[in-house]
Batch of 4 targets.
Target 1
Amino acid sequence: MTSTHHRRPQALLTISLEDYFHAGTFGSLIPRGQWYRFESRIEQGLSRTLDLLDEQDATATVFVLGIVAERFPELVRAVRERGHEVASKGYQHQLIHDLPPAALAEDLQRAREAIEGATGEAVAGCRISGWLTPRDSWALDVMADHGYWYDSSMRPFLRSHARVPAARRPHLHHADAMRSIWEIPVSSVSLLGCDLPLGGGNWVRQLPQAVVNSGITHLAQDDAPVVLYFHSWELDPEQPRIDGAAPLARLRHYRNLHRMPDRLRHYLRRFECGSIAGWLAAQPTPHAPPARALGPRQPAGRPTVGGPALVTPARSLPRVAASVVIPCFNEERALPYLANTLQRLESSLGSAYDLRFVVVDDGSTDETLVRARSLFAEWANVTVVHHDRNRGQAAATLSGALASTTEIVCAMDCDCRYDPHELARMIPRLRAGVDLVVASPYHPDGAVRNVPRLQRALSQSLAFFYRSLLRQPLHCYTSGFRVYRRSTLLTLPTLRSGRTGITEMLARLDLAGATIVEHPVVLDARLFGRSRPHAARALAGHAGLLAELVWRRLRGDGRTRATRGELRPQLP
């Protein structure tokens, strides 16, 4: 009696090695220039991915960003050492539709250098951020020009491949008589004439499992291999939450992350999973993989892209000493983001400025104080100050000034919504005769990005009323990103709680005759936690301050100059 061994259907398993903040879902919210600020979780996602593949005896093609290969070459080598193919996903996750041919060629080359520098092996394939359609054949021509063996950037969706149905399956694209490249599209199923890419990612996580199972069963009956995909961050449900993202973006990114391992196990058990290069090598085609001689592996030493575009002048003069005060209230989740930002700030400005940081925990009810002391324990230039109860941003700023040892005192928010590298331009504006430099996103040369309309309307409306009551007309009175003179700042009395106190600080300095300079900046959306306070509470606070200023105007002392030093701080 003869027994027949049942062979599982073949699948090509593809994985994108990315961090959670690299995800295209957050592309419009998080500029690539701010990636360095985030706490990296790429090692956790990759570790779980490789363990899952080992558990299921599966082999995969892992598409790697060039900046990941530069920053974590040891992780990229681990992928190869555990038997998986390493391919390119471009250098820094730029969407294909934002790249002209020359820029795409540069991105592909830079990514290849970084990845090959990490592995010491030639890169055969690529996947570009932003899915291709048959109309994007120019991009395949560019890849063929640069010697890539295959691309896997097509994902048939709805009617995108209706005119070229053959392009839904792996096929050879001919750029001309001498150049060709394999295209390996992600698998899709047809429903009522529309393609649904059930090969992985969001589709696997979001749709009911019965629906995806039915689609996968249909795909498994085809003679072409099923092409599956997922992202390494999808196996890390503990990743930080980007609260500033739109509700739909949060739903797309976070929903069912905890279910992803079991769903993937279901498919990995069902298919015989291998890499794209392994499958292509077995095809009866004269088209061969690239064979390029590589020199000895070189460390990937090019700086990670995305740092602030500041030119720090070489200085032979002594560095200028400045303190940076950072009020924090329930900012436990934002502190790693802050620490990475301050580290880059110190590196960028260190040749010109001797920076000292004062982190003020303003009576937080979470683990902000514990996390701050832990994160900054090794920083010789960081002081952590604690309030036993919440006293408001103004009081925290004054406490930080009291703890400072420099005449220049800067203040910034913990969530870094204003880029602190702007201090390189703001501090020099605190020249003789100037008492305060205030950042303004509503200045004609400033800007706001992804900020809710209600917040913008509230700030601009308040600015209209404050301009009519104070000496110096400004475009923004609510920004806490400022550069003070410590001697001037400490003349202020106890101020209002909440964020209204920050505006009151500016108003009191203005009425006392201080000179205030406005500096245009960009304001970004808050990424971690929720903005405070609520609009009604903020309006009530500002209404009280405006009423006081109106009363002073009616008394005739709203535009008089007080004697410098007349006010004394009354902080505990």
Target 2
Amino acid sequence: MTPNGNNQETEEGNRPQDRHLTGSAIAPGLAEGKAFVYRDILSQEEAVSAESMPKVDVEHARLDEARETVLKELDASRRRVEAQMTLSLADIFRAHDAMLRDPVLLQEVTEEIEGELIHVEEAIRRVFCRWVERFRANGSTAKAGRAEDVADLARRLLRALRGIRAHPLEEMPDGSVLVAQRLAPSDAVHFCGRAAAVVVEFGTPGAHCALMARQVGIPVVGNIPEVVAQIPQGASVLVDGLEGTVVVNPDEETRARFQERRKRYEAEGVAAKARACEAAVTVDGVTVQVAANITSRADAELADENGADGVGLFRTEALFMYRNALPSEDELVEELSHALEPLAEKPSIVRLLDVGGDKNLPYLKLPAEESPFLGRRGIRLLLAYPELLNVQVRALLRLSEQRAVQVMVPMVTVPEDMDRARSVVESAARELGIARVPPLVAMIETPAAALSVSDILRAADALSIGTNDLTQYVMAAGRQNPLANEYFREDHPAMMRLIRIICQDAGAATVGMCGELAGRLQVIPDLLRAGIRLFSVAPRLIPLVKEAVRRAKAAPKPA
């Protein structure tokens, strides 16, 4: 260290001490540890046979062997995530499995080997890079996500071809701060059990690694330019996932302040967990519901453990995807009953299937759309496929006879969407001889719906603001697009004003929120004053959200 204390010796030479980097808060929490810098195999030079003319049949055999290895790895990753996290995250690996079986992709690799007489490693690099660029050039959030999936598969195949059976992150010491340019879902499976925190150059709150990190409580800071070059291997790092800042090689004073803040934060978490089953009542006496966003029974069990007042959003997509045919009415009733059982005595809002955009059902053979996020998704798609809508509605009506269920209608844009949805529900109820139709909740995800609330409520009983998509449409910024991250601001004044308008126009109807903004503790006082009375968040966030509600005041809800 120099006399003035500005530098500190590290593995890579003299580095500035107490260097502050600013990014974006992606997953909450405070952590410290030694940096483990993870470099992408796709950016490394490939060492292959020096043989000038590869044997085509040998390269085909190597491709087949690598593919079988990766398929087994994907299955193992899926099982691991299902056991340790949630079924919804495991769906990522089912999607990768389907992609690796895509005959068009495989044929392109094969033709590259045969036509260019190159080794399979180089063929994979060329073909997969073309696919990545093709998806990224599309400009949509969904295609950007597909690009990362393709790149992830390329990495897996290259490792398999090298004979690498262990994932590189298995070498990372427990308690490390993982530093990377970007992370794939397969990486997240390994860092979730080992890393104290994650710092990435490219990352958004909607990215797969962010979702996984939040599930297990790992803080993540993203959008720090050239972060791999800025943080040396083995450097001491402080990560603030609340404010979105990172300190490299902190001096003793900075470390002491951080550790004190971390102790307070962890103590608050313990206290909040102890009170998790108590009602969330504001300082001025308003009771607020804090519910869970869930996908599976495991999620419901975790929600119950964390004091959920119910289910604010049950995502049904996992019940429909990765099947060969549409599930039957009986199957849906059975699977939903099983998943919701841990919270059977509490109300549950179940969302109708929300596909289109970035999610598809192979057995429906949906037509390709140039701009899928501006196309037929949510209720728009369900109304176009009556059989798909009716089987869900009938199952939910039958379920409502057993427990307190509400039906959420996704992607409502105009009042007529909600009118038609109610008509379908009421017609199905008459057919089933069910006298009481469960409450219908309109999901407000578009600016048009936000400005049509009073008309939408003629067919809806309550509202739930889906801030992830609403932000995307209001700010014209894809939520998984790192290049537009500075514009994807859920708490932007324009968003907050729109939320206030929604609550004001809703009158006495309950307005809930189920997007990521609902879990932003520092914004909760503003949301309460706007009129939000139900927060639906990831199960682990429930105790902290309840505590934030208890410390805030809520303006009276308009009559």
Target 3
Amino acid sequence: MENFIKEFNSYFDNFSFKEREKQIDTIDKKQFDILIIGAGITGAGIAREAAIRGYSFCLIDKEDFAFGTSSKSSKLAHGGFRYLAQGEIKLVRESTTERNWLAKALPNLVRPLGFVVNAYEGGKDSLTKIKIAVFLYDLISNFLSKYKNKNKHRYLKAEQIIKMEPEVKKEGLLGGAIYYDTNVDDSRLTIETIKDALAISKSKKIESYAFSYCKFIGFDKDEDNLKVIYVQDRIGGLTHTIKGKVVVNATGIWIDQTLENANIKARLIRPTKGVHLIIKQQRLGNNNAFGLRSIDDGRFFFVIRREDYSYIGTTDTDYNENLDEPVCEKKDADYLLNTINYIFPKANLTYKDIISAYAGVRPLILEERKSESAVSRKHIIIDHGEIKNFVTIGGGKLTIFRKMAEDLILFLQKKGYITYKSKKRNMSKKDYLIAVKEKNLYKEGLEKLGISKKYFDYCIRQYGKGAFIIFDYIAKDLKLGKPFIEDYLLTKAEVVYHFKYEMALTISDVLERRTESSCHIHYKKQEELARKLAQFLMKFYGFDKDILDKQVKDYLEKIEKNTKFLQENI
């Protein structure tokens, strides 16, 4: 174990909250190949691709890593089944290829999930249409592909569906099919990708950095024609100057705001809001995920099985309000529940069944005269000619972040913004350093530490090899293995891990992005959890009480905004 911890530290110890101040204080004296603004999954992927190809980078974000869309998605790495109907064959091929690679590279985090699609009498999707769609979906995914989706689709008769999913609507059911995509914790994928990028850079003796709460405020160039970005450290309060050969704007829904800060006039993004409701899986009774058509407007949305929970969503509506604080409203919840209660008539879900809700904003590329759902999920790369060496990448979707990153790096090479090193895609030969591929790792001796099989599996799923660091913390101090609140797995050892190896800095960082606590704990219990976490951080690390109280207040305000409609209508 000692050798493992030493090796783990050699890769990831520079991503500790204790290292942040020391690192950012020296940033003005350094020069990088690529400066990346925006640390969602797109920016994280660019950092990792850069590291593998031998380029130095500095990655910044005005909030926490994965703060925006990358922590508020449908928690899927998927090929885009519904894009088949829109004729987006290339996008589906691209997405399924990347989904298949992710399932191989990070199998503990990216896991197979079956989706049932049903045909009903008079419905928009006929049985023949469904059969053709699932056949094409797997064909596009696997034909001449290096990485395959080993979970093949199956056609289902009505009686097979009822046996598999007894709670589903039976009247008018003609049959259907089951196809497979993958479950993923989006924010953990983003954070693991950033950690991997830093670790790979470190292994190659290349200085690279990633900073959250570091806001881009301006752009310039120096006497050597290097690009300069001015950033405000929102933790330390100082303004820093960071130099590089090229600046990449990967800020997602904030792309237009970032361009404005760089004195570039352009409107590229059409923000659309997507909402999810979370309930206990037992309450709905779905054994698999479902692809559904809204009975109101025919839009496609999901019921997603995530262990003990079911995520229902997403909506798709234009959004022109505060990009930092999208919220779930009553009309959003009613829209989703209306169809759910029609397809699962025995459930009769009400507001009382909703544990939590969240809203995210998609950074769709602006296309005139198209509905929200019809806007393409393709990505674009734009070279802003009026300010040389400033490039924007936007659009796309979480699943294809690796392809987006590769396209961006090749674009920068072709333009001569970075020195040409390699056209070869080495990335596909390297898996995540954190990944766990072995099965049946649980040792009975761990029970003596209070580590149950359920907690063991949960930690492996979420943290990969990092789980063994957490178990070591517990072995050395059994108190760290105690959960914060009853009937929820999150332990103090995990929080120590978040601060030491994942640059967690706030209460929200832990509960919203390092874990799914903000989703899985009932909104009425969130205050208890947040305050107990604050007490632990004050005692264990000596953090300032007033600062922690402010963090708790800010976190609970976010919870309250997304559940206000519940509290007002129950």
Target 4
Amino acid sequence: MKRSGSALSILLLLLSLAAWAIAAPTPGTAPAAAPPKNIMYINGVPDTGAVFLPDSALLGRVDERRITAGEFVETYFNAYAPDRPEQDSSGRVEWLNSMVNKEVLAKVAKKANRPFTFEDRQALRERTQRVLSNMLFIRAVLDSVRVTEADVKALYQQLGTEYHLRRMVVPGGQRADSIYRVVAARRSAWDDAYARYSIPQDDAGPNGDLGWVTRYNMTWAAAEKITPLKAGAVAPPLRRVHGFEIFYCLDTRHTEPPSMESMGSWLVSQVRTKKQFELADRMQEGVRRAVNMKYDSLNIAWAAPQFMPAMSTTQGKEGTPSIHINAVMPVIQPTDTSRVVARYRDGTLTLSRFMTEYGTIAVTRRPDVSTPEGFRSEIDAIVLEPYRAQIAVERGLDKDPAAVAAIEKERERILVEHMYQDSVESKIYITKEQRQKYYHAHLANFFTYAAARYAQFVYTDSVAAQAMAKRLRAGERGDAIISADSIAGRKRTGSVKIERENENTMFHQLVFENLKPGQVEVVGPDANGRIAVIQLLDFDPGHQLTFEQADHYCSDALQSEKAEELINKLLARHKKGLKIETHPQLVMRIRLVDPTSTRQ
């Protein structure tokens, strides 16, 4: 089953991102003065409620189907970012027109009503399961939260204390726990631990100093760790999207908070977010109990460190942070993929199935499973979704109008896909002469990216790593060592990889800027104690592709041009029989802000 991320885990991630990064600024950077009354400026315009359109505002219509401002915002930010037009007036009009065109295609496809294949029915079942699982979360969690006056007053009382904080950011959970225990027990000074283990922080002073921080500058999750602290105390690690935070409280003092009236919406947002997480945890735990979920802690502890975080951050030149994407799945021996990581009422989850499910998630949306906590969360995502969908049906949520509409949208998508195959793709034929003409007209486009080919050996033993580095520096080639180990049946500790100029993985800067062919570098240990030995084998600065090498690129480009031409003709033909209206003059009054990154 192809997964773009589990239902509940994605919703929790979106909720957590809003809670972490938006519900309050990062500790230590906000002024001590009273904060503004939560007015957001969008494109320089204050969001007072009088300028921007309500979500229900009509932007267009295709027969009876309405296109609203709320739907415009939702579809825009749900789209793949590189495919979105700019947010200026022409880009917004372009997006509105694309929404109209999609509705026209949907009506034409529904009218044709091509029969579903087995694969279509399976895809619709999987989508229905996802929708119902999401709907359970929305109705049982998001819509069930009630914020009382007592809740708001209790939170307001916390605004009367300031905390002088230092913060350490550690990439791995096990390392963070170990550092916390050592520092909290005074077996190591904070400054020493910070210098040795913390990721550099642009928003903090020496040794992670954040200055005096109020409760307003904290999310509720951070506040739960920080507000109980006394002077000299250290808070247990706090999990972030990519890493863990440890806070050290140097001192506390009283401060006069802003008026309760000026803080009203912020107070309600914080309480609501906290209760949503509490309800989500209780619901998830209830499903675990219902299916008798049992984790195999030993196998999870063994498997988690095999995975590298899909995304990581390092400090580049001049302190600029760089994001590294790691799409490579771990290489695990067949005898180990049969390990059972969880057992539940109706079966077991093996490491093999875990890897299959995890591998279908888009790389940029893969959760970090390199710690036992993260690994267990992904087990929940894989195992529990069908049961949440079943609970949703038992509660009648399959008849919820929002769920019905989402499922119908998936059915429309499948029908439109088939119509495109029948009415567009099947009518396109590109000759060799056309492809050759395109190639010669676009020669500059057919030049390869520079590529670095390197050998990578990974160890947890520094002595073994240095021994391999010594062999490579003495003149041996990493690819020859890997090949010899494979032929002799020895356990492989290395692999040969190719890094291209347009990629940005963990060793990109090393192999493109630091090493020359034959040179060796030892990197690490990382947060999980792994040490990498890297040898650059070859470097290709890029070259012109021949026609034979570029033929399929030419074919793809010409097919795209022809497909667009046919789609436009199809749209023009069918629009004549539909009642279509649009209001492009309204697009600049749309509050075009990602709904997952604004305050509640």
